[in-house]
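Two folds, back to back.
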Amino acid sequence: MADRELLLWRHGIAEERHPDRPDAERVLTTEGSRRTAAVAQELQRLQLCCDPLLSSPLRRAVQTAELGVAAGLASGFAIEASLAPGGDPRPLLQAGNWQRLGLVGHEPDLGELASTLLGLPAGAITLRKAGIVLIRLGPAGASLEALIGPRLLRLRHQWRL
């Protein structure tokens, strides 16, 4: 089995929780959209394109995936219910023929998945909003390739301009 990569991408900054609005409908803020778009462009520039790119069904994650597609990070994306908060995306790692799988979702779920794959204690890895973790999956196990916060990715994007 050849090495494959898993890109875990947390959604960008979203509206605050409000008792009159379901959590699933919270959207990215204007600043969250701007910052997430810059992160997506930098990920594409770093050639971290994904096929496939899967997203949680919650609106803020869908918007993040849409920004990734707009930046050329993937040709499209699909909604995956197991990426909703509290879901179990581990079966996705066994499905399909992919080289780099991109998952857009939420904390603490993505951090817990990364920690589990890397054999680390629960809570060892956390992703900031719009942050990523890149994990190489090979015959000998999983290895951490990158854990990058959105600020560093945005700064790299700005320095290139």
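---
second:
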Amino acid sequence: MTRSLLASLFLILACGGCARDDGPYPSLAPRAIEKLGFDEPDAPAPVPLVADPELDVEVAAAGARLDKASGDFTRALIGVEAAARRARGAAAGSENWIAAQIALAGLDGLRAEVSEVLSNLDDLAVARAATLAPDYPALEATRARLRAELERQESAIGRIGSGLAPA
């Protein structure tokens, strides 16, 4: 009889697990999102590009500034490389070393012009993106040219600077 009493007691306790609890626990039923398929959503239609004459003027002006700054940098680079050759092997603080450092600082000032133009165009691109406007090809092309020129100039400055004695 104790065996049947234990079995009855076990059955009563086991059935307690099936009782409904209206507590704060989440349901284990499938959620709405789980009933959706895994298909990719349809791509939105491309937004047609609308000409922006005001932006075209700003991009053209930035391109002109880039061309001028690039030419100025290239012309100045010849003089800076000559000053760096004269300072090669010279001790820090020597006359040739100081002249090369001054020339290199002037070259860095010319690099700053390209950096400023790029920063201005980046601001225009961010403003367009904030309005959810699509990329503007002329703007993106000029930004790419500016980044390439800036990289060229930074590389030249780094190369010349590494050839001089450290301060």
